[in-house]
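Recap quiz, item 2
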Amino acid sequence: MPVEFKLPDLGEGIHEGEIIEVLVHVGDKVEDGQTVLVVETDKAAAEIPSPVTGTVKEIRVRPGQTVRVGEVLIVFLKEGEIEEETKAPPPKPPEGKRETRLPAQKEKKEEAPAEKTEEISRETEAEKLPANPLEGPVAAAPSTRRLARELGIDINQVKPSGPGGRVTPEDVRAFAEGARRPEAEKAAPEAKIPPGPPLERGGEKEPPEPSEPIALPQFDRAGPIERIPLRSVRRTIAKHVAVAWSQIPHVTHMDVADLTELEAFRGKHKQQVEAQGGALSLTVFAVKAAEAALKKFPRFNSSIDMESEEIIIKHYHNIGFAVDTDRGLLVPVIRDVDCKSIFDLAVELKTLAEKTRQGQATNDDLSGGTFTITNIGPMGGTGFSPIINYPEVAILGLAQARLQPMVVGDEKDYEIVPRLMLPLNVTFDHRVLDGAEAARFLRIIIEMLENPENLLMMS
Amino acid sequence: MVMGEFTQETDLLVIGGGPGGYAAAFRAADLGMDVTMVEADPGPGGVCLFRGCIPAKTLLYVTELMHDSRRASEMGIAFAEPEIDLSRLREWKDKVIDRLARGLVELTKRRGILFIQGTATLEDSSHARVQNAGSSHIRFKHAIIATGSSTRTLAGAQFKPGGRVMDSTGALELADIPKRLLVVGGGFVGLETGSVYASLGSKVVLVEFDGQLMRGIDSDLSKPLVARLEGLFESISFNTDVTSIKEGESGVDVTFSGEIEEKNQRFDRVLAAVGRTPNSQGIGLENTKVKVNERGFIIVDQQRRTTDDKIFAVGDVTGGAMLAHKAMHEGKVAAEVISGMPSAFDFQAIPAVLYTDPQIAVCGLSEEEAKRRGRNVKVTRFPWSASGRAVSMGVAQGMTKMIIDPGSQRVLGVGIVGREAGEMISEGVLAIEMGALAEDIGMSIHPHPTLSETEEEAAEAFLGSSTHILPQRRAGAGRDSPA
């Protein structure tokens, strides 16, 4: 019996993924556990292993296609089943019988009446039909299929409106519009935050979408253009930040922290941490400082449920940090920061960041956060206003620390000394929090950063 | 690399000038690429033009004319028995080829494509060496491999130019009309070439390893042809294998095993028509990342890209249906993808035509394939005996069938046996590509009286609205039938 291999459950909340790569071909022999497909979900790329040792009988997916959990991806024949399969009447001849044939004729049947330039071979009969023969041909005209490719759309995902399930060009265009502006109406009732922890971003329930965009002008009238399909991570980011930006009334509160002491402290312990495989970056201290502030102001560690008109306070502190990757911005999450020391965090943060950059972060690594830190400092900048990682309610932004001439003392008796100054900010959801709280919240973080001993005392 | 050797630069190197290769080269040139095409023949055209489709169809048309001249007597027009002037027939065939070949040369020139007669060997993913009168070195941005396929040999016997054991190339040269010709293989080539020789006067013995002719074609479509071939050929033997072939001065001695009665026979010539193998050897694939499967076919994706990013492949060398029209479309897709267009070879129906008399043409899902896959389909047939045009042409043995999805009513497959079947199959292809319903064909007005009406009526048979077929539930219910 052929084995129908379905898309396995990829972890919490992941219901679908996009096929990035098909690593096998029909007829290939595969080992149990050998990677056969690469699937990218909203959060990470997953290598899908073969469940059996045997032969690939049929591939029902192709790169670019979106598949749902439970959908059949590949049909395998287990080892030793090949013969049974080939005994079916019209396909290739029985293995046993072949031995009686001469070499030339032996191969002949494998190709059926294939001859000359205008012949059908049996192999072809299967090939010219779509991957899933039971579904029949794609019910769309070649020009419509081309349109779909141009718009970067998998035509199988488009809801048909034509007779007999035919996809019209209008259907394709409407679908493309929807992808750019994910159906506001459809998602609206699901706007509420799913109950119970852990809350995820980009999880199964799509948050409400921003309202309809204004139609774009015809750019190609002014000059040549290129359309790049919005795919996987980029698409997720696009949807996610659009939701955050349109749902959350953002306010950014800015301040400056003096890192001179911290820098000295960092210099002193850097090698020690590196020896343990960590990296004593500013983000490590920021995580610890943020934890202190979150403890004092639990509302920064919450979500808002507008439907039930409730604020959901989370009694766990999972802090995400933004990582710039080839595929786009990802936010891996460090869980239960309150139970971890500076040294623990230095190691975990480095490992997690590398894993994320290499595209190996799992869905677990990228979900369950309650607060986020974004450090643009290494790239420069004197200040910025980050977007809150919905459905969280606040985000801490760090710009670049620079040596600044600072006035120490009072008007009568002062001196100007060089200090390492960090512009930083907290952006908060004004529905949940107010400016005064944010100022106090940020003050705690600053105090922690300015007095590194305090950080050490914490755990 | 030789000292001082000149390396030519090109955007696209097309290796092979058959239908797949030249379609790719033409499209690429039209899209603004600098194209170099390397081909062993003096001009583009490939097996199809010089040694395949075109010469075969030229000869098959002639045999159809002969057949028509004979059956005209039934209609009151008597001709004398045709006289065959073999050298003039060859001349005519060569003239046809020459005319088409010159056209392709002209199209190649006008598009500014550099044509090099020779053979190319890939040195790596961006260089190739061309062996011709001299030797040249080419650096390319992309390459399309379109090297085609060759006939399989038979029981160890080699095809020698002018030899008695021939492949289709040798047979189409029409060296003589052998008294007795053995055709090994009951596929398209065997049947077409066998028909030509039988019509020209050879006694044709056909042996087939399998239990049926034309595997892959529904038996109701092959039946009228098999009936005619049984009259035309001396014999057709199934489940028969060739065990040895000895080519001598005055004939070929062949031994058989299997169902054939006479196990040792002598023939004047033997035609091997037992399939084709890909020409993937000797072109330097091992110097690139291009991979072939266990049967030697180059592995490609829907964009026709091989496992080497810069190299594409189209046509027979990539396997699948070995059909010129498929190769041409693949060539266009490859050229478009290389130029950055979002093209893909995602065709839903590839037609195949058997140019015998009667012809058989099919596209999409066959009835037997549907059965094998356990797919529920509704099959309708329109017998040509009910077609005014077919009866008036004296070709009423034909039949048009349609394989339809009973739920959505979509057309999944079309099969036609009869005169001009090849000319009519494209309506079926279009229907399948468009996702058309039986109703779409049934409600499109077809001219009367034509053979193409049989497609309309086959679709209407599904709807129960065929004019010339009694609806099944009403058959015999005379009260409802207008007289």
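Residues 232-247 of chain A form the longest helix (16 residues).
The domain at 250-458 of chain A is CATH 3.30.559.10 (Chloramphenicol Acetyltransferase).
End of item.
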